[in-house]
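Continuing the batch. This is chain 6 of the set; chains 1 through 5 are on the previous pages. Same settings as before, nothing changed between runs. Recording input and output for traceability.
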Amino acid sequence: MFTACNDVVSYADLKEKEKDAINSFLVSNNFVEGPINVISQAEFIAKDSTTDVSKNEFVLLGSTGVYMQIVRKGEGAKMQSGDSKTVLARFLEYNIQSGDTILTNRFSASNVDKFTVSLSGTTFTGSFISGYMYSYYSSSYGTSVPTAWMIPLSYINLGRNTAGLAEVRLIVPHDQGTQAASQSVYPTYYEISYEAGL
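Output for chain 6:
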């Protein structure tokens, strides 16, 4: 007689594993030199919504659990309530837990990801139109832009000057990322530049 062990992993266990992976990434990662210095939202606001890249500062954005570093605020203008825009993005998407790059369009001059975004009050909604994110995720998960991709739009400017594009780095828990990340409970790291589309 024997008893089979229970191999079912609970959601709480997956979240704990994700938390450990993020904490480890804050200390040691392949994208910034040295540990990441986390600042509060209050510090971030007091510094005119900026992060010091030379100090590896990332702001922890409240209840979302998203960490954001603004590399460049960009030229142009911030979105206002009632605006709808087309945004062009170059990005790197990295699975923090597995240590693998999922997608990137950084090495192809002709490929840029395109999405539409609207702002109503303080709520952003967005859908991919074309690009790697659209091709990779749309058939199984739809075209919704991850919530974390839209968070920086409250702080950056959208313009067309490619020398002055807004650029951010994000550490994203599963529930703010793609639907694939949300379903499988893994955290992602993004480097994204934003450009106003035509």
